[in-house]
Amino acid sequence: MAGKTATTMRTKSPLSLKLALAQVRFGAGADFATCMRTEFRIVSRIIHGHDFFEGVRAVIVDKDNRPVWQPATLAEVSEAEIARHFAPLADGELALA
Q1: What angle do CA 90, 91, 93 make, to 5 degrees?
Q2: From CA 21, how far away is CA 24, in angstroms rounded?
Q3: Tens digit of pLDDT for each residue in 34-87?
Q4: Which of the two ends of the chain, N or C, has the fewest CB atoms closer than 10 A to its terminal CB?
């Protein structure tokens, strides 16, 4: 089971994989409101990036199931890139009531 899961994970966006791990680690020590603001920051940046649209193209549009991720490997995803997704938004933070 773990081997199959690892094989599946290797086909996913390296950036998304590292972001997901960073989110889990961050969220373990954060309250709900902080987690929601952080999620909003990350998603606000993902939708302007390459990999979201590449995944949609590969699975839904062209159905070739051959996404070309940028960056292509986990090693190429820098800690600075991960930190950038967690940083406050210049054009406004999520307002929670």
Answers
A1: 85
A2: 5
A3: 999 999 999 999 999 999 999 999 999 999 999 999 999 999 999 999 999 999
A4: C
| Number of Cβ within a 10 Å radius of residue 56 | 12
pLDDT score, position 96: 83
Tokens 């999520």 found at: 94
Query: What is the residue type of 34?
Result: T
- pTM of the entire structure? 0.89
Question: How far is 68 from 54, CA to CA, in rounded Å?
Answer: 7
Give me the pLDDT at residue 91, please.
86
Q: What is the DSSP string of 25-81?
A: HHHTTS-HHHHHHHHHHHHHHHTTSHHHHHHHIIIIIS-------SS-SGGGS-HHH
